[in-house]
Amino acid sequence: MKKVINNPSDVVEETIEGFLAAYNHSFRKVENVNGITRRNLKDKVGVVIGGGSGHEPLFMGFAGDGLADGVTIGNVFAAPSPNNVQSVAQAVDSGKGVLFVYGNYMGDILNFDMAAELLEMEGIESRTVLVRDDVASAPMERYEDRRGIAGDVFVFKIAGGAAEQGLDLESVAKVTQKASDQTFSIGVALNPGTMPDSGESTFTLADDEIEFGMGIHGEPGVERTKMMTADELTERLMERLLDESKIDSGEEVSVLVNGLGSTTLMELFIVNRKVAQILEDKSITIHDMDVNSYCTTQEMGGLSITLLKLDSELKELYDAPANSPYYKK
Amino acid sequence: MKKVINNPSDVVEETIEGFLAAYNHSFRKVENVNGITRRNLKDKVGVVIGGGSGHEPLFMGFAGDGLADGVTIGNVFAAPSPNNVQSVAQAVDSGKGVLFVYGNYMGDILNFDMAAELLEMEGIESRTVLVRDDVASAPMERYEDRRGIAGDVFVFKIAGGAAEQGLDLESVAKVTQKASDQTFSIGVALNPGTMPDSGESTFTLADDEIEFGMGIHGEPGVERTKMMTADELTERLMERLLDESKIDSGEEVSVLVNGLGSTTLMELFIVNRKVAQILEDKSITIHDMDVNSYCTTQEMGGLSITLLKLDSELKELYDAPANSPYYKK
Amino acid sequence: MQTDALIINLNATQVKEMFLYVGEKVRENKPLLTKIDSAIGDGDHGIGMSIGFTKAEENLKEKEFTTINEVIKTVGMSMMTSMGGASGVIFGTMFIGGVKGLEPHEKLNLPILAEIFEKSLEAIKVRGKASLGDKTMIDAFEPAVERLKQCSDNNKSLLEGLKNAEEGADKGVELSKEYIAKFGRAKSLGERAIGHQDAGATSVWIIFKSMREWVEGLSKHA
Amino acid sequence: MQTDALIINLNATQVKEMFLYVGEKVRENKPLLTKIDSAIGDGDHGIGMSIGFTKAEENLKEKEFTTINEVIKTVGMSMMTSMGGASGVIFGTMFIGGVKGLEPHEKLNLPILAEIFEKSLEAIKVRGKASLGDKTMIDAFEPAVERLKQCSDNNKSLLEGLKNAEEGADKGVELSKEYIAKFGRAKSLGERAIGHQDAGATSVWIIFKSMREWVEGLSKHA
Ligand SMILES: Nc1ncnc2c1ncn2[C@@H]1O[C@H](COP(=O)(O)OP(=O)(O)O)[C@@H](O)[C@H]1O
Ligand SMILES: Nc1ncnc2c1ncn2[C@@H]1O[C@H](COP(=O)(O)OP(=O)(O)O)[C@@H](O)[C@H]1O
Ligand SMILES: [Mg+2]
Ligand SMILES: [Mg+2]
Ligand SMILES: [Mg+2]
Ligand SMILES: [Mg+2]
């Protein structure tokens, strides 16, 4: 796999430099660590998101007005270190505390939790909301084991919206937790991505095979099957998603059809068309649909579908303005 | 190559349906043809863009406030038919005439020109601006042979901005033509895309080879070389681009680093970092940088760099608000 | 059994049947055309021609025709409106261009066919600004049209005319290998296009070949 | 020539040299560790450990040390701050955890090493909530620490202690193949993880193996 990179050990630093070269007017680098913050930080709860890199535009693309204030960026597929998290949190804290929002992975938890302890010693209060949207990653009985995938986007949006409203840390954490609890995703993998460092594929799949429920780091899914049509594939995904989420007729959702990297927008639109048909057939109200490649794994092929079940509080926050280079509402 | 599609002959229709399922509030389908228009059309010159599909989010993603009013969509890599172009133009015309903006390809010219004749018979006036940004596609002496690639985006932006200002058709065409004349791009290909219909690759390249100047349909480029680092590659591209465009110190540009499909945003940022360094070294002022995959060729790997040389008129139009699902200013 | 010489006129229904057969053959050759266009173009010519003739079939089957003008116009309009691409207009014009302004005919014979395609050729040249040797479908179409005229001038049968046209197209395809492309997506290839035949020229040859086959079949089995 | 029994104490500079050597060996094994992590994890363990020990080398080389606490803390802090991932905290804790609150020592001997790693093991368990048999680095580290303690209790030499620890780690790695992962990215594999050794456990084994090699080299050449 050819990658347009220089020294593989510099990819994260250079990615951040390239991001800031373009969006320098709105963001600045946090000194000494791989992290960024918004320039116009406000007197409000700071929202810090992050995780391993390699999933661009996640996470950097989700800092901005009505979104995150700071982003802590690990190496490719590796959680950021405690001091990285800590430095970003310090940079965004206005005295009102910091909310961490990130996907449920052991590495991230270890590092963010350690950072939270260090911050506490400095008198900076923090709360954490884990994103656990991937319904294929563990059954409901082991909900706490579910991983975070593209659903991140919806939870970041709600957290950013709530913080922007000026709520206190406890309240921002509470509504963000609700958003996380109401966010459900499922994905399907077609082709692997490759690690920029080693050029190794994240998994292997036969030419005519796909895997339902595979994670964004190549974590094993729930079923490997033959390739099928877009409509069949979408039906399979939606069936499982509606079943797991218990979202039913009369309820209202926002939808994200997320590409994993190399899957084209054309394909995502074709899937989205079927998603809309299925939701309409089930009398589930579509509040909004977003079709984009927000949470990628290098040039991995495949997609995920995310549903955020809305109540009036979440809907108001979902609709609140948001503005970053890669996400706008 | 696995593609998430249904019947290959339905990809364009279903892509449009999926797009409209998501963005139905802002766009509507043009009856009987593969085309869309904005819902809130204004009493102004209509801007119609389009071309073959398969390059998503081009072209559909560039209709909206301050952008195009209508989009005429051909089959994969095939220009839209004359009646398709005509129907979209009729749908957007408010009596002030229609500006066609599209890339310089024989198929597109044949179809748009024929549509223009048909429109003239109906009393609808039209003008055409061709985008010819790809400096690698023909030498300056054969400027009229240069193809249009990602530079489309800048020219669409200016056309949309000028029409939104309420200028008359002649004036919109004139400033759009200036933007086209001042837009310069060059690309490099790493891996082919595949045709959704046949699954055929658009070209072949050895595992360690890249091709400078290759077109977005796999048209042959100017040089096939071994893979190199991101910095070397960017230097090569920028040298040629600055040389061909004659953009020099003291001048001001907007920059687009465009991914061709499967090349990751991480890689595009790494390239953008170097682009910024080179422009700064040459004392060329960077007005704006955009790093995105706007003009793709299915899952083709590679990227292009586009420079729009700004004067005060173009700068004002560039900065004017624009809002579509895939492009915002 | 009818002899060659007897096949002088085709009525509108026969012309319709003939173009249905042509469409079948073009569609059969989709992979070939795609492969040829892949070598020096963007690989979609087979797809486009297939779409065009599928639409033509749809529109032809739907109706009864009394004039051959209507049949040929239907083929052309189907291609023009459904295909897109360079070849949508060019091949659309190959049919529409020749019947535009032509007085209605109930029968097609060689002189009329020659007249129609002569006008088409002109229309294509006006539209696309290409001429013989530019590595386009004209490289096959122009020699085919010339042969039609010659045969018509010499009072040959329709079948004889088509046989000659097919041969002319075939030779044109061969010659197109030697040309440098001046139009379309092979243009930037320069010298590198040499050795590869033009996709559109190949389609022209297939069209004449299958017209000839159909008329030949009629001669044998009628 | 010094005999095994004579290697009782290492001063701070020697401990520093030893960990520079350990770092070299871990970096040499980057492809192996990556491969193991690829089988059931996300394939970045070798990269992470390499980054950590490169940073450790940088920070160790930069300074003269008087206490072994400082050396070990430097190794741990380097890993903790540079690596990220699960293993950044876990392997950082493997070093920092043991010297936290420990009175300063100028020399490292087997009892002190055993004490340090015993504390580290506890700290890792508190942080990561894993225990023996959960298919983590603990599967190698816990038996290694036990062997260190036993040898220390029996007044064995540092080299003897390290030899035993290496053996314990090695066996732990073997046993880790049979476990189902309860933590980290292999967790969702369930039964499918069986047969594959844990990446972090393998790192622990490499660390003890290279500590042993370095001390052995010292015995032979000193
Ligand atoms: N200006 C022109 N005049 C005549 N024929 C042309 C012209 N441009 C292209 N063609 C024909 O069209 C063919 C390509 O058709 P097709 O592949 O369907 O369209 P596109 O080039 O838009 O992909 C060429 O092989 C050539 O024969
Ligand atoms: N909770 C934990 N306790 C102890 N060790 C752990 C824990 N989670 C993961 N590990 C160790 O970390 C190793 C994985 O490290 P690495 O691949 O660098 O991080 P990541 O899992 O974040 O990709 C595992 O093989 C395991 O030995
Ligand atoms: Mg990892
Ligand atoms: Mg084409
Ligand atoms: Mg073509
Ligand atoms: Mg790992």
Automatic annotation (TrEMBL), chains A, B:
InterPro entries: DhaK_dom (IPR004006), Dihydroxyacetone_Kinase (IPR050861). GO terms for biological process: glycerol catabolic process. Gene3D superfamilies: Dihydroxyacetone kinase, domain 1, Dihydroxyacetone kinase, domain 2. Signal peptide: none annotated. Keywords: Kinase, Transferase. GO terms for cellular component: cytosol. GO terms for molecular function: glycerone kinase activity. Residues 7-327 form the DhaK domain. This is Dihydroxyacetone kinase DhaK subunit. It comes from Halobacillus dabanensis.
Automatic annotation (TrEMBL), chains C, D:
Pathway: Polyol metabolism; glycerol degradation. One of its GO terms (molecular function) is phosphoenolpyruvate-glycerone phosphotransferase activity. Homodimer. The dihydroxyacetone kinase complex is composed of a homodimer of DhaM, a homodimer of DhaK and the subunit DhaL. Its EC number is 2.7.1.121. GO terms for cellular component: cytosol. It comes from Halobacillus dabanensis. This is phosphoenolpyruvate--glycerone phosphotransferase. It catalyses: dihydroxyacetone + phosphoenolpyruvate = dihydroxyacetone phosphate + pyruvate. Gene3D superfamilies: 1.25.40.340. GO terms for biological process: glycerol catabolic process. InterPro entries: DhaK_L_YcgS (IPR012737), DhaL_dom (IPR004007), DhaL_dom_sf (IPR036117), Dihydroxyacetone_Kinase (IPR050861). Residues 13-213 form the DhaL domain.
